[in-house]
């Protein structure tokens, strides 16, 4: 996967994205995640890889300070149309190299982004960098099972599926900085598809 290819893939996929990833099990999973979180208007919130704005539809965004970024102009265009009368700031930006100062946001929301960016480690480090002390990262994504080798079929399918712009074999535990106590995983629970998709809540403690 690379940025140019992903931009092409999401140009093709943007018209039908909501039919697959903002309905059925995916919509129920998103609802479950955001029902448990209360934002307030004193917080600065960043949605990384906002896509068509599926997550934004599930929160009371009208009085919140929200910035939403995506690398795909086509996906971002869909989100802008949905929220054209809102105060949400939509920016075309690479999540692996964000144009924000250190410790800029109280919340970073990352839905289905770490499995699609070319460099998940760099993206995750950027999320930590722009997060304020005691801020939280909310992750909803698919990851390889903990402490379990992938099946042969998954090994064979992984390079094929990556052509579609997503990686089914990424391991979240490998993204955590080694010997770094600046963050703490507060919650890590299965959310759908027998735990393939997880909700992970992280707090920045240093």
Instruction: List the strand order in the largest sheet.
Output: 3-2-1-4-5-7-6
Overall pLDDT: 89
| SSE ordering | HHHEEHEEHEHEE
Structural class: alpha/beta
The major sheet is characterized as:
7 strands, mixed
How many DSSP H or I helices?
6
Q: Bin the strand percentage.
A: 25-35%
Point out poorly predicted stretches: none
- Broad shape: globular
* Rg on CA atoms, Å: 16 Å
- Tell me roughly what share of residues is in helical segments: 25-40%
Distance between the termini: 33 Å
Strand segment tally: 7
Task: Please render the helix and strand layout as text.
Layout: H1 3-13, H2 17-21, H3 24-35, E1 44-48, E2 65-70, H4 73-82, E3 89-92, E4 105-111, H5 120-130, E5 131-142, H6 152-162, E6 183-192, E7 197-204
Parallel strand pairs: 1-2, 1-4, 2-3, 4-5
Antiparallel strand pairs: 5-7, 6-7
Structure write-up:
The protein is of the alpha/beta class and 206 residues long. Helices cover 29% and strands 25% of the residues. It has a 7-stranded mixed β-sheet. The protein is globular, with a radius of gyration of 16 Å. The termini are far apart. The model has no long low-confidence stretch (mean pLDDT 89).
């Amino acid at each position: 996967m690379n940025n140019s290819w992903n931009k092409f893939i999401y140009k093709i996929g943007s018209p039908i994205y909501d039919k697959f990833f903002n309905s059925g099990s995916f919509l129920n999973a998103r609802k479950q995640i955001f029902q448990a979180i209360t934002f307030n208007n004193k917080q600065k919130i960043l949605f990384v890889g906002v896509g068509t704005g599926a997550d934004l539809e599930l929160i009371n965004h009208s009085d919140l300070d929200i910035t939403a970024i995506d690398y795909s102009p086509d996906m971002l265009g869909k989100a802008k149309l949905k929220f054209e009368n809102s105060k949400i700031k939509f920016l075309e930006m690479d999540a692996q190299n964000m144009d924000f100062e250190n410790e800029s946001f109280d919340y970073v929301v990352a839905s289905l982004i770490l499995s699609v960016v070319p460099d998940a480690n760099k993206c995750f480090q950027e999320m930590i960098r722009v997060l304020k002390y005691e801020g939280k990262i909310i992750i909803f994504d698919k990851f390889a099972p903990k402490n379990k080798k992938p099946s042969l079929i998954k090994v064979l399918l992984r390079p094929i599926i990556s052509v579609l712009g997503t990686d089914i074999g990424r391991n979240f535990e490998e993204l955590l900085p080694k010997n770094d106590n600046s963050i703490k995983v507060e919650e890590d629970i299965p959310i759908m598809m027998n735990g393939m998709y997880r909700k992970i809540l992280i707090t920045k403690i240093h």
